[in-house]
Amino acid sequence: MRRVVRQSKFRHVFGQAVKNDQCYDDIRVSRVTWDSSFCAVNPRFVAIIIEASGGGAFLVLPLHKTGRIDKSYPTVCGHTGPVLDIDWCPHNDQVIASGSEDCTVMVWQIPENGLTLSLTEPVVILEGHSKRVGIVAWHPTARNVLLSAGCDNAIIIWNVGTGEALINLDDMHSDMIYNVSWNRNGSLICTASKDKKVRVIDPRKQEIVAEKEKAHEGARPMRAIFLADGNVFTTGFSRMSERQLALWNPKNMQEPIALHEMDTSNGVLLPFYDPDTSIIYLCGKGDSSIRYFEITDESPYVHYLNTFSSKEPQRGMGYMPKRGLDVNKCEIARFFKLHERKCEPIIMTVPRKSDLFQDDLYPDTAGPEAALEAEEWFEGKNADPVLISLKHGYIPGKNRDLKVVKKNILDSKPTANKKCDLISVPKKTPDTASVQNEAKLDEILKEIKSIKDTICNQDERISKLEQQMAKIAA
Fold it and tell me: Phi first, then psi: what are they for 401, rounded to 5°?
C-alpha cells in the first residue's frame, strides 16, 4: 500500500516565542536599508546592529541580560559609518567581525562577561575595499580566516592573525554581491549576485567552478547557501515576482534538482540551514513568519514541514549555533527575531515524551575547535569541522585571546595578491628593506622641516599683520 504521509521525525516541529520577560527590550534596531540579518548569536552573546548617530554601532548582550536594556548600555562603536553586517567567530565566542559603510572590516574582542564600557578600539582594522562592506563571513574550519564582500564587487579573504588580505577576487562579479556562503569544509564559496547569477568559486585557485545564469528570473535579491552534501540552495523571485526556492547540483547547474514557488510577498528570504537535521528555515524580511523545510534524497527533495506565524513583522533574525541549544527540551533551533524596538527569542522544538537524550535529534555537531590554522588553509589543506557530542550539554571552554601579529608595514605594505601564487611571494632581503626604511625616514624628516619653516613664516606674517592692525586702530 502507498504511504500517504511522508514519515519524518521533524513533521511536528513547532515554534514558540518566549515570554515577555525573556525578551531584550527597548533596543533601537538599525534602519539602514541593507538585506542582512542585523543580528548574530552564539552560546554566550547576542549582537544586534542598532541606530547610532555619527557612525555605526552594535550592541553585544550576554544571553542572560534579558528585560529592558538601558539607553546608556555600552556599545561597540568604532565604525565611522553604519554597520551593515556582523558575524561571530565560530572558534572563539568572544570575537566578532563587523563590516560597515565606512569601507572597513573590524574585528573585536568582547570581554568574557560582556561590555562594561563602550568599545571603540578593534583588535584589528582590515582595509582593502573601496566601497561599503556589506558581508562578513568567518571560515567554518580554519582559525582566523575571514571573508568580506563589498559594493566594489570584490571578495577579500583575510588572515586576521596578521591583518593581511591574502586573496582578492575582484574580477569575478560584474554587479553587486547579495551574499556569500562557505561550504562545509571551507574549500569553496557560493555567491548570489545582482546579475542573477549563482557562482561556485574555488577561492584559493581563484576560479569559478560552476555558475548558473538567471537562477531566478526576478530582479529582486537572491540568496545562495551551501548544504552539507555539496548541493546549493537558493531563494529568489520569479519573473512574476513570486518568491521561489531552488536546489542545485554544482556539477550540473543546467536544471535545478527542485524548484518551488511560494507566495507573492516582496521581502527577501533569508535562509538558515542546520546541517545536522537537514532543515532549512526561511525568514522573510518584513514577514511575520518562519517557514521550514526538510531536504532529503527523495523527490521532491525539498519537503515543506510547517510555518511559525506571529503578529509582528521581523526586521532581522539571529540564529543560534547547535551547541547553544537546550538538548533536554528537544530544542532543535533558536531564533532571535528583531522587532522595531526589541529582540524576541523563538524556540523550535520536536515534541517528545521521553526526558532522555535524543541522539537521533542531536548527532555530533560542529564544535568550537578549529580544524586548521590559517596558514595551512592558505597553503591548500582542507579539513571537516571538528565534531562534539551534545549528550551532556555544551559547556563553553576558556577562549584564548585573539592575537594579531602585524607584519612590519614599512617593510612591505600588504597587498592583496591577484592571480598569483600566494605562498611563494618573494621576501625582501633585510638590506634592501633597511635602505628603504632609511630613505623613507629621510623623506619624513624633510617634510617635518618644511612644515616647521612654513609655520615660522606664517608666525612672522601674523605678527606683522597684528602690528599693522594696532597702528590702524590707534
Answer: -65, 145
Chain-wide mean pLDDT for the chain? 89
| Domain carrying residue 464 | 444-473
pLDDT digits (tens, 9 = 90+) for 236-245: 999 998 999 9
Max CA pair span of the chain: 115
Whether residues 294 and 171 fall in one domain = yes
Instruction: Give how far Cα 342 sits from Cα of 20, 44, 84, 315, 376, Å.
Output: 10, 19, 18, 10, 42
What's the pTM value of the predicted model, to 2 decimals? 0.83
Secondary structure (DSSP) of 133-188: EEEEEE-SSBTTEEEEEETTS-EEEEETTTTEEEEEE-SS-SS-EEEEEE-TTSS-
CATH code, domain with 295? 2.130.10.10
Cell of residue 105, nine digits? 572590516
The answer to whether 106 touches 78, Cβ cutoff 8 Å, is yes
Last residue of a domain, one of 347, 381, 397: 347
Name the residue among 420, 384, 381 with its Cα closest to residue 206: 420
| Residue 435 falls inside a structural domain | no
Determine the 3-state secondary structure of 71 from DSSP: coil
The verdict on residue 387 lying in a domain is no
Instruction: Quote the pLDDT of residue 198.
Output: 96
Same domain for 448 and 343, yes or no, is no
Structural domain contains residue 196: yes
> Which three cell numbers mark 329?
527540551
The radius of gyration computed from the CA coordinates of the chain, to the nearest angstrom, equals 26
pLDDT digits (tens, 9 = 90+) for 337-347: 999 999 999 99
